[in-house]
Write a structure and sequence with these properties.
Layout: H1 8-12, H2 22-31, H3 72-86, E1 105-106, H4 111-114, E2 137-142, H5 147-155, E3 170-171, E4 174-175, E5 184-195, E6 201-212, E7 224-229, H6 236-240, H7 244-252, E8 265-267, E9 274-276, H8 288-300, H9 319-322, H10 339-350, H11 363-374, E10 385-386, E11 400-401, E12 409-411, E13 429-431, H12 441-444, H13 459-464, H14 471-478, H15 482-493
Antiparallel strand pairs: 1-4, 2-3, 2-7, 5-6, 8-9, 10-11, 12-13
Helix pairs in contact: 3-10, 8-10, 11-15
Length: 495
């Protein structure tokens, strides 16, 4: 029906890759072509994460296994990283000197507190009577600046956005003893009814955010809020191993429906160069290591070699925060999370395994896959890649993977806009999130929800929130029969 909408870049193959021979390039071009036969599963389609894919018992721990192709030594490093990812940090001073330094202001005590069992985080709840503390939902803060000021500061890589002058880059609802927290997030939801073809309907929940119990005076009068829910940790090392040429080829292609992805170029403090962003909701981080270090700093107030401040997001206007003791120990190194510990956490984050696809040959799943393609969902959710032959880690090299993302920015419309710029990303733009593992989301965390702020309670609701460049594919889903929409969801649940 709509196969003619597929990007021209796919028809001609990706841009030349220096890591591949001419023979390899031909093989990669052939195997990454979009499917045209929906009568059966494609070769290797069940192996979402290449040779690292696992076939384990489906239970709440399914996202927490090491990649199947890790070496014995790699598994040892993975287990150490797992322990660090799960451990609770404490405030200073403490007798547990290798675990102190939390805060002074923070969002969570551990990585696992936000990434529940290595999956998605949890929003406080849609029922006001059943609200819980905000942990996994971060509230990013920014203020508009003059074009010259923003261009100068962002161009120098000093910041990804202009922070609130008192509260910094994100609101932190927790603090160590003796220090006031920054405030408490309040969320109010408004119901929006959506009529669907075939007499069906859906109800969307539109959130509105405010901050209460401010601990350091008023926020800037023009402050903008950007809620960010902790995403799943699966396959991050494989996403890092996708060749830049393949990503940029999709940015250059003709996708149909007015869809045109853009890269987010990020300043790399180590090299001083601009590099391709791949991680977080606006592709604001270029590597797994930097994303992890940024979370240690912003979310837990812990210093690392990449972010050496012991005070996280504390600002000069919060002197009481800067006067608190930190957890760096001279005999352990100059950072609260020394380089070797960062290596373990990074390695762990790079090697969480993808579970094997389920029911890939099921008739209804294949029908849903066909609808996914025909609706032009793959214009952004690019199904498959072959990773670099020269990837840093051997287990990530030359793997056929199925992440369903282009890792590019897209205008998603006014309904999802946060009005906050991040590097090259605009206030209506979001990075295409990977879909692999999405069907097991609620197996891992029954309270998990979807989209950048967790507003979508179901996969259908997530689709219905799509606007902007994704408006036409979204409208095709609305126009489907109830049976077709059910098949589409079956396909997504098989991933």
């Amino acid at each position: 029906m709509l196969l003619g909408l597929f990007p021209a870049a796919w028809a001609g193959g990706p841009a030349p890759r220096a890591d591949l021979s001419a023979t390899d390039r031909a093989r990669v071009k052939d195997i990454t072509r979009p499917a045209t036969d929906f009568s059966r599963a494609e070769p290797f389609e069940t192996m979402q994460g290449g040779a690292g894919t696992i076939k384990k018992l489906i239970n709440p721990d399914i996202f927490s296994h090491p990649a199947a192709n890790l070496s014995f030594e790699g598994r040892q490093e993975f287990m150490v990283g797992n322990g660090l990812f799960r451990k609770d940090w404490v405030s200073s001073p403490s007798s547990t000197q290798a675990s102190d330094g939390l805060g002074p202001l923070f969002n969570a005590r551990s990585c696992q507190a936000c990434h529940v069992k290595d999956g998605r985080g949890t929003v406080p709840g849609f029922d006001p009577l059943e609200r819980s503390d905000v942990v996994a939902l971060l509230l990013r803060l920014s203020i508009p600046g003059s074009a010259d000021e923003a261009r100068q500061r962002l161009g120098q890589g000093e910041v990804a956005s202009l922070p609130d002058p008192v509260y910094g880059h994100q609101l932190q609802p927790f603090a160590v003893p003796g220090l006031p927290a920054e405030g408490r997030i309040n969320i109010q939801y408004r119901e929006i009814a959506v009529a669907l073809a075939g007499g069906a309907s859906a109800v969307l929940m539109e959130p509105a955010y405010s901050v209460e119990d401010l601990g350091y005076g008023p926020l800037h009068p023009d402050v903008r809020y950007s809620p960010r829910l902790a995403p799943p940790m699966l396959g991050l090392g494989l996403l890092e191993a996708i060749h830049e040429d393949d990503i940029l080829a999709h940015a250059a292609g003709d996708h149909g429906d007015g869809i045109s992805g853009r890269p987010n170029w990020i300043h790399d403090a180590r090299s001083g160069k601009r590099v391709l962003g791949r991680f977080n909701w606006k592709a604001g981080q270029p590597t797994v290591e930097r994303q992890s270090a940024n979370a240690f700093s912003g979310d837990m107030g812990l210093s690392t070699p990449l972010f050496p401040s012991h005070y996280g997001d504390c600002t000069p206007a919060q002197q009481a925060c800067l006067d608190m003791p930190h957890g760096a120990q001279a005999h352990l190194g100059e950072h609260e999370v020394p380089a070797r510990l960062m290596d373990f956490v990074t390695m762990y984050s790079q090697n969480l395994a993808l579970p094997q696809r389920r029911d890939a040959d099921d008739e209804r799943v294949l029908a849903g896959k066909k609808l996914f393609y025909e609706s032009n969902c793959i214009a952004c959710h690019v199904p498959k890649y072959v990773t670099r032959r020269d990837a840093k880690r051997p287990e990530h090299r030359f793997q056929l993977i199925w992440p369903y993302t282009d890792l590019l920015l897209h205008d998603m419309g006014a309904g999802l806009a946060d009005g906050q710029d991040e590097g090259d990303a605009g206030g209506r733009e979001w990075r295409t999130p990977p879909l692999w593992g999405i069907g097991l989301t609620k197996t891992v965390n029954p309270n998990a929800t979807w989209l950048h702020d967790g507003r979508a309670r179901t996969l259908l609701e997530a689709i219905l929130w799509h606007g902007g460049e994704a408006q036409a594919p979204r409208d095709r889903v609305v126009a489907m029969t109830p049976a077709q929409r059910a098949d589409l969801i079956r396909f997504l649940e098989s991933l």
